[in-house]
Amino acid sequence: MSYKPLKLTPEQLEERRMEGAQLLKAGHWSQAEIARELDVSRATISDWAKQLASGGRRRLRRRPRSGRPARLAPG
């Protein structure tokens, strides 16, 4: 059993989306298989596939956070 953090960082989430995009483009696995491999829902993979089709990998990239910056340091 491998360690799995309770909450992923924005960088880790983006990395997971990019891995999903790579698997979707390869076309060897079904969306359900990709969802199981990346531990996300099938609906999430379907959303990623739509975004990938409409704008490529840049649509899956992390966007800047909106709102006022935090005043306290995380941790």
Please supply descriptive tags for the structure shown above:
52% helix, 3 helices, 75 residues, 0% strand, mainly alpha
Q: How would you sum up this structure, described in words?
A:
This protein has 75 residues and is mainly alpha-helical. The chain has a domain of 51 residues. Helix content is 52%, strand content 0%. Helix 1 crosses helix 3 and helix 2 packs across helix 3. The mean pLDDT is 86.
User: How much beta, percentage-wise?
Assistant: under 5%
Roughly what percent helix? 40-55%
Discrete helix count: 3
Q: What string gives the helices and strands in order? A: HHH
* Beta strands, count: 0
Q: Between the first and last Cα atoms, what is the distance in angstroms?
A: 26 Å
In terms of per-residue confidence, which ranges show pLDDT below 50 for 5 or more consecutive residues? none
Radius of gyration, CA atoms, in whole angstroms: 14 Å
Please summarize the sheet with the most strands: none
Pairing-aware structural class of the strands and helices?
A: mainly alpha
- Which descriptor suits the 3D outline? globular
Average pLDDT works out at: 86
Chain-wise SSE layout:
Blueprint: H1 10-26, H2 31-38, H3 42-55
Helix pairs in contact: 1-2, 1-3, 2-3
Quick overview of this protein structure:
With 75 residues, this protein is an all-alpha fold. The protein is 52% helix and 0% strand. It contains three helices and no strands.
